[in-house]
Description:
The chain has 2 domains: 40-166, Beta-Lactamase (2-Layer Sandwich); 233-423, Hypothetical protein af1432, CATH 1.10.3210.10. By secondary structure, it is α+β, with helices and mostly antiparallel strands. Helix 2 packs antiparallel against helix 3 (72-84). The protein is rod-shaped, with a radius of gyration of 42 Å. It has 14 helices and 5 strands.
Amino acid sequence: MKFPVLKKEIHLRLIRRLAVVFILAALIITAGALFLEYKRLDETLLGFAEKESTVFTALFAAYHQNPEQQDPAALRFLTASGMERTSFLQVELFSSSREQVLFVSQPGGEDVWGRYEKKGISLPFSDQPEAVRLFANKSIFLQTLLPIHDSNGSRTIGYFRGIYRVSLAEMQRLIQRTLWSAALGIGGVLLCTLLLYPGMVFLSNHLIRSTAELNRANGFLLRTLGSALAKGDAADIGHNHRVVIYAVRLAEQQGLERAQIRSLIHGCFLHDIGMLPVAIKVLQKEGGLAEDERALIVKHPGTGIGMIKKIRWLRSAEPVLGCHHENYDGSGYPAGLAHEKVPFIARIFTIADVFDALVSIRPGRNALPLPEAVRTLEQGSGTQFDPVLLSAFVEMAPQLYRALSEMEPKQLDRELDLVLKKYLVT
């Protein structure tokens, strides 16, 4: 068996799965970064406002040291000049007793303040910085209230309240910081994914080898059980082998997926497992069957399904087990299903099984020549067999028949092994 770690499909499968995990992790990290940035948006914007407010708090601190010798007009002028260099639209200064000392507003400031008042937003005086965000006129504004401390920082000497407009440059910095945070997180996930990949490859290699061994064992059991069932029905040992090959070739020609072909193979080997409770003398009885004997035969599809129901890896054989005696026109048993209601793989199996029975020696009957066997099949087109599938099989039957009929038992075994390795072994 090819060392699994060298198989291209193993790498592709791992890459697809890791890519899905990486994309999900990247989305979660990006969403998390956006959420965290949003949660601390007010804090960030308040930091921007605090930084620019130092222009005004410094003026107030100087004014507060000796208000009698300070000119209020000069304070207003300096404040207005400072507003031109900052993003504040409105500035108010209050004494420690919360009496207004100064009020300066630029164009647009009072309009924004009015919007805050309409919403009933007015920050209370506090010894902690406070801010409330407002979106208006395609801009973000911040009403801020900051305590002003003395030079020692031990005493509150006044309060600053202002309307701050967040600039485009600041928003760009916020967005860049968010993207960098997300990029760092995604980069970390990518690095971890790349580091995990070699380990996952080798861990998968061990699991795949173990699974392959188990699949080979299952294949051996299927072949053994199928051969035992064929003997019970007095068919030759190679019957099941050839039926599997005929059925798989037709399924491949029809473009069935690997999982469907695996189910078909299971069904080919186990289709008559429901016959085990039936006595061999009944199976090999010549002439008509008694009523109770026929009832056992008719029940064997359901009996077979009941026998494999608890075995998970065999459940995929149920379509063939339950419907391999259903006819395309609805005249079969046990349920009388017709047309598309008969599972596709069961329709394939029926054609392969009947064809090999016709061209093989059976109890009380010689093998039919290939042309006669094909004519017999075609007589059942639309009644016993799906006409489309039958037409496809008739085209390929001569070449397949010649190849398989010339094979010795060991060659047939090797041909079957190739099929099982392709579809049952990972």
